[in-house]
Amino acid sequence: MSTVIMQAVCSVDGFIADENDQIGTMFEWYDNGDVELPLFEGTMITHLSQASADYLKPFWDQIKVTIIGRRLFDITHGWGGRPPTGDHVIVVSHRPPPAEWLEEFPDAPYIFATSVEDGIAKAKELAGDGIVCVCAGDVAGQAFAAGLVDEVEMDVAPAVFGSGKRFFGSYDGAEVVLEDPTVVQGDRVTHVRYQVRR
């Protein structure tokens, strides 16, 4: 059975970007170490500290499906039709995929779903025993509110934004209790992973 993990790099005060979708210095740790780790089918190489690489490589290797919202899809142009990790990307959106994007990337392993519930159901079917990674923000917040998230993984960068796009999106539901975290200290990042208590 797959595991659904809500994940993102975030600031200490819980933002994944500022109001203009800018990430500031939060991703500097992706290029401050000596260990190379590939993303996007090897077309992007990160240079991580040993501690971050040891923590992230097994996590990235287990990701089979990534779920994103339409805003991230539009900002990244669907990452050029290549999943950052794993085999598939599911985009949760009420709008159909852009025709020009489909023409440019006809073989992209991307699926559009009209609801979070449908997207996660399809992702779990595709992922098998692997990880479904839901990128933090509004879509992940909806999944969390629906009780569909098994774990929360935060890569906390030493920055304070004050405002912006929240890790949990617009989630304003009831309290959810998490288990004690696993914590790994990288260079300019702290990796924190919680299981959702059932």
UniProtKB/TrEMBL annotation:
InterPro entries: DHFR-like_dom_sf, RibDG_C
Taxonomy, superkingdom: Bacteria
GO MF assignments: 5-amino-6-(5-phosphoribosylamino)uracil reductase activity
Bacterial bifunctional deaminase-reductase C-terminal domain segment(s): 3-174
Classification via Gene3D superfamilies: Dihydrofolate Reductase, subunit A (3.40.430.10)
Coiled coil: none
A GO BP entry: riboflavin biosynthetic process
Pfam family, one: RibD_C
SUPFAM superfamilies the UniProt entry points to: Dihydrofolate reductase-like (SSF53597)
Protein name, entry field: Dihydrofolate reductase
